[in-house]
Specification:
The chain is mainly α. The chain has a 3-stranded antiparallel sheet. The longest helix has 17 residues. The structure holds a DNA duplex.
DNA sequence: CACGCAACTACCGGTCTGCA
DNA sequence: TGCAGACCGGTAGTTGCGTG
C-alpha cells in the first residue's frame, strides 16, 4: 500500500494534478471498520507527501448509517463534505428502469405488463433494484427452460425464491473463513446467547473472545445476523444472536 | 440505596505469520 | 527486511441483580 500510494502521490505532485476519489458503497468500509483509515490516508496525504492534493466523494447506500458521526475525530476534522441526498426510487421509477432493461434484454412481448408490475412490486418490497434485475434474468431463464417464449406469473414467483437472497449471497461471498464459520455456527444454534455461541465457536476455531466479538459485530452490521440485547438475562447483559435470514437459505449459500 | 459482582462488550497495544 | 493482516491478552467500561 505504502509503495503504491507513494507512486500515486509522486505522480500528482510531478504533474501538478488533483486526484478525486469516489468511494461507492462506502457503507461496506464501515462494516469492516476500515472507513476512517481509508479516508485518513487520502485526506491527509499532503502531510506525508507535500503538494499532493486529493479530494474525496463518498456514496453510502445505507440510510441508517451516519457517515460523519461514525468517523474518527482525526478524520472529521479534515472531512467536511457537502451532503447530497438522493431519495430511493419509487415504484414508478423502478418500473421505468426495469422496462428499459426489458427492452434491452428481451425480445418484444416476452414479458407482459402484468408480470412486469409483479416484478416491480417485489422489487419495491426489498427496496433494491438489483433484486428486480436478477428477477428478470431468472424469470426469463425459467420461461426458456419450459420452452416458452413468454414469462408467466409463476416464473416470476419461482424466480423470486432465489432473487430475494441476492443480498445474502453477495454478503456471504465477501466473508473470510472464520466469519463464514461463525455464520454456520449461528445457523445451527439460532437464538442462543452470545456466550453460548462463543463456546461452540471456540471449540471449532480456537479463536479468542476478542476476535469473536469483532466478527459478531461485523455480521450484525452487514445485516446477516441480528444481535440484540436480550431482556432480563439474569446478571449483566447479553446479546442474543440469530440469523436475519432463513437458516436453510443461509446454509445453502455457505 | 449504595455497592460488589457476574457476564458481558469495547478498545488498545502488541505478537505472529506470510509475502514480496 | 518491511509491511499488512489476523489474532490475542489485558483491561476498562456497561448493565442489572443480589445483598446488607
Amino acid at each position: 500500500f505504502k509503495k503504491l500510494f507513494g507512486q500515486v502521490t509522486d505522480h500528482l505532485v510531478a504533474e501538478d494534478e488533483v486526484l478525486v476519489v469516489a468511494l461507492d458503497d462506502v457503507n461496506y468500509l464501515f462494516y469492516d471498520a476500515e472507513a476512517s483509515d481509508t479516508l485518513y490516508s487520502l485526506l491527509r496525504a499532503h502531510e506525508a507527501h507535500t503538494g499532493a492534493r486529493i479530494g474525496v466523494i463518498v456514496i453510502s447506500s445505507d440510510p441508517d448509517l451516519d457517515v460523519i458521526a461514525e468517523l474518527d475525530g482525526r478524520v472529521q476534522s479534515v472531512f467536511r463534505p457537502e451532503d447530497v441526498y438522493f431519495p430511493s426510487y419509487d415504484t414508478e421509477e423502478i418500473v421505468a428502469i426495469l422496462r428499459e432493461r426489458v427492452k434491452r434484454g428481451f425480445r418484444d412481448g416476452v414479458i407482459g405488463t402484468e408480470e412486469l408490475d409483479r416484478v416491480a412490486g417485489l422489487t419495491t418490497e426489498t427496496g433494491d433494484l438489483r433484486v428486480g434485475i436478477d428477477l428478470l434474468r431468472r424469470a426469463g431463464l425459467r420461461a426458456e427452460m419450459r420452452g416458452s417464449t413468454e414469462i408467466a406469473g409463476e416464473d416470476v414467483d419461482a424466480a423470486y425464491e432465489k432473487s430475494k437472497y441476492v443480498h445474502l449471497s453477495r454478503s456471504l461471498r465477501g466473508l473470510a473463513d472464520s466469519e463464514r464459520l461463525l455464520v454456520d455456527v449461528i445457523a445451527r444454534s439460532d437464538g442462543e446467547q452470545a456466550g453460548t455461541v462463543y463456546e461452540i465457536f471456540r471449540e471449532e476455531t480456537g479463536l479468542g473472545y476478542t476476535r469473536y466479538s469483532e466478527i459478531v459485530n461485523k455480521l450484525a452490521r452487514l445485516g446477516i445476523i441480528d444481535a440484540d440485547y436480550a431482556e432480563l438475562e439474569g446478571r449483566g447483559r447479553s446479546r442474543e444472536l440469530s440469523l436475519a435470514y432463513d437458516a436453510d437459505a443461509v446454509l445453502d449459500r455457505l
